[in-house]
Design a protein that fits this description.
Elements: H1 2-39, E1 47-52, E2 56-61, E3 68-69, E4 80-85, E5 88-93, E6 100-101, E7 104-105, E8 108-112, E9 121-123, E10 126-133, E11 136-143, H2 147-150, E12 165-181, E13 187-200, E14 203-208, E15 210-212, E16 215-220, E17 234-239, E18 246-250
Parallel strand pairs: 2-3
Antiparallel strand pairs: 1-11, 2-4, 4-5, 5-8, 6-7, 9-10, 10-11, 12-13, 12-18, 13-14, 15-16, 16-17
Length: 290
């Protein structure tokens, strides 16, 4: 009898251990991938500039007399000009400028239009492409030798706890739009597939989602933003609801927006309905001084 009891206790302990360990490993692996993604060529750590284009000609290069000034230690003085006309952007390079699309040298090339995907150009360690924000257009510059990338030493996180994996009820809001304001002050509307309702520390909370019903995305603020986490809020993703209308918010996977790492991003800020009344002591903590 005593031997049987010991076996039961050992089985329960082992089951608890094997359940907890894979979960913690999952979160660590998720965070490790997140760090690697930030470091990639298309990650956020190498952003080196955001230059708004005016209609017409916009000269660029490392010399200070250009309209758009690239880092002089990684750029020739005069590379050419960007021409913005009616929402289309063409680049015209100077003779002999080492500007490439992939391995092809560029002389004159349309790099942005409303009907096509923006092209990435390169010069030495620099990479750039055009983005649109409302009715404005900008050149987003990357530098593979960026000090933000070289100085990156990881992101502090809260201890992993399954208490922050919270069951939430999905309430569909078909046709609803959320007004999003980015850090530049520009506003735009996004479709919201639904709202999640959940409880933290005995208090009911609500988050409006963007994305789609199968993959929910949230820009949220909470009371930890005042001291321990990024002041502009954080991001969180969640799977769509199950057949009974429930999903899980895993705040261990709450992560900083790009603006936490670079001054050259244009991040959305949390809409007022996504400002939680509690502190979420989970996920990524504040990074740097941005």
């Amino acid at each position: 009898m005593k031997k049987h009891l010991l076996l039961v206790v050992a089985t329960v302990f082992l089951a608890a251990f094997t359940f907890e360990k894979p979960y913690e490993e999952e979160i660590r692996e998720w965070h490790s991938k997140r760090i690697n993604d930030l470091k990639k060529e298309d990650g956020w750590l190498n952003l080196a500039g955001l230059f708004w284009l005016k209609e017409g000609d916009n000269t660029f290069g490392g010399d200070g007399s250009n309209n758009i000034i690239f880092p002089s230690d990684h750029s020739d003085a005069f590379l050419g000009k960007f021409v913005l006309k009616n929402g289309n952007v063409t680049v015209q390079t100077k003779d002999g400028a080492s500007v490439f699309e992939g391995e092809k040298p560029v002389s004159t090339l349309e790099i942005f239009s409303s009907t096509g995907r923006p092209l990435v150009l390169k010069h030495k360690s620099l990479r750039w492409f055009v983005i649109q924000r409302g009715d404005k257009y900008a050149v987003r510059l990357r530098d593979l030798e960026s000090p933000y990338l070289k100085g990156f030493a990881g992101i502090d996180t809260y201890p992993i706890s399954q208490d922050w994996r919270i069951k939430a009820k999905f309430v569909p809001t078909v046709g609803k739009k959320i007004t999003i304001i980015d850090i530049t002050g520009r506003s735009y509307e996004q479709e919201s597939p639904g709202q999640l309702v959940f409880t933290v520390a005995g208090k009911e909370q609500h988050l409006d989602a963007t994305g789609n019903k199968d993959r929910l995305h949230f820009v949220f603020a909470d009371q930890s933003n005042k001291h321990e986490t990024y002041g502009g809020g954080r991001f969180l993703d969640a799977p769509g609801p199950d057949a009974e209308g429930y999903t899980y918010l895993d705040f261990n996977k709450a992560y900083n927006p790009p603006c936490a790492f670079t001054p050259y991003a244009t991040c959305p800020t949390p809409p007022k309905q996504n400002r939680l009344t509690v502190a979420i002591a989970a996920g990524e903590k504040r990074y740097g001084d941005h």
